[in-house]
Amino acid sequence: MLKVRVIPTLLWKDFGLVKGVGFNSWRRVGSVLPTIKVYNSREVDELILVDIMASREGNSPDYDSLNDFADECFVPLTFGGGITNLTQIVSLLHAGADKISLNSVLFDNPNLVNEAAYKFGIQCIVASIDVHRLENRFTCLSHAGTQNSKREPIAWAKELADRGAGEVLLTSVDRDGTMQGYDLELIEKIASAVTIPVIASGGAGNYQHMIDAVKQAGASAVAAASIFHFTEQTPSGAKAAMKSAGIPVRQSLR
Amino acid sequence: MKIAIINYGMGNLGSVRRSLENIGVNVIVAENPKQLSDANKIILPGVGAFGEGMKKLRNDGWVEALQIQVIEEHKPLLGICLGMQMLASLSEENGLNEGLNFISGKVIRLDNLGCKFRIPHVGWNEAKYQESTPLFKNIPQSMDFYFVHSYTFTSDNQVNVIATSAYGISVTAAIQKDHIFGTQFHPEKSAKAGQQILKNFIDFVPC
Fold first, then answer.
1. What is the pLDDT of residue B206?
2. Which chain B residues are Cβ-neighbours of A43 within 8 angstroms?
3. Which residue from A minimizes the CA distance to B148?
4. What is B2-203's CATH superfamily?
5. Of A35-39, A133-137, B74-78, B148-152, where does mean pLDDT reach its minimum?
6. Which of A65, B87, B94, B122 has the least C-beta neighbours within 10 A?
7. Contact (CB<8Å) A74/B122
8. Quick one: which of A144, A145, A121 has its CA closest to A132?
9. ipTM of the complex as predicted
């Protein structure tokens, strides 16, 4: 049986890891390499690493740093931030990324999903969608939440899935960093609109939130950051709680 | 012991190389088919589409080199993910494409075999393996491995299927024919259990 994944999200800015609230007011939370080392030794299911300034500042991915990070990572690693073309994806896969997360570039060039999926297989391409609630409507933001793309998330998720994305990383910008729980309505809407796996992100503050995202909203995996940075709760604790709630989670070799 | 990883431009090469180095073996990243003759064992990694992968193997002379090194010289081969699928006779990904035909079988999309679950099959899933198989030595039964794929290997000879995983249907998780192995999951990304698979391949002695 396929297991539900618990995925720590690492937000990388300048020389270290940060975490904010609502994609803003970033706090330093540590260094990248030691954090990856710890998560690797604790055998997390997967890691997502996002360079949050790359798109905003128009920078290319930092392959050398990724290469160093990947040296310590023997679990699947998804990399995102600042990716605009296929050549960069080749270099990122060679540096040690296993999956590539695309976001801002897609609003101008959605065809990059088709090209990348054809070349690297759909399993390699994660469509990252950042969603903001405007009164009772949802809209997609880009460039680390700084621009409103005016795209509607359900149609956008469907389009990216049809173009060949292998997974959706769905982040609620409003819930990000609040630890008030995932946006279950949003997750439910996207998960029922697409047939590819949906990773819930934004808002996890306790294990019950994760259980709700899976059981009530239909997420295939849960990503979280603040809960692991700022509380005593851990990925293995989350999996134990999920297991008690009847959700299948992975066992690892001791 | 020298292990060659075939670099045909499609793999998550970095991850495979690191895993092997972590075990402590001598790794050659083979950029050229001639380099395979220096190796004791060969790994064919793979992230990507079948047709594109086979085209690269064919155009750059890897198919002939593998024929000599693996079939004639009997060097053990491990195909990972797409690398395992390319061991098959045929694939239906992006139209029909011929494979290496080292292990008789077809590569078919999961939903065309009746899988009703979300595709791709992404994440950790249990592998149920045949007890005597050398690739799973020192690994507990039903251990989780990391999968990420939409197509699966359907073997013509059930005896070649050494491990399966349940995902709506029975998915071929690993195959073996003599000294030729394949895993649909990614041992290089399956933490300690995956390292053990690679170690077992390195320790494998053909009879």
1. 84
2. 191-192
3. A123
4. Class I glutamine amidotransferase (GATase) domain (3.40.50.880)
5. A133-137
6. B94
7. no
8. A145
9. 0.92
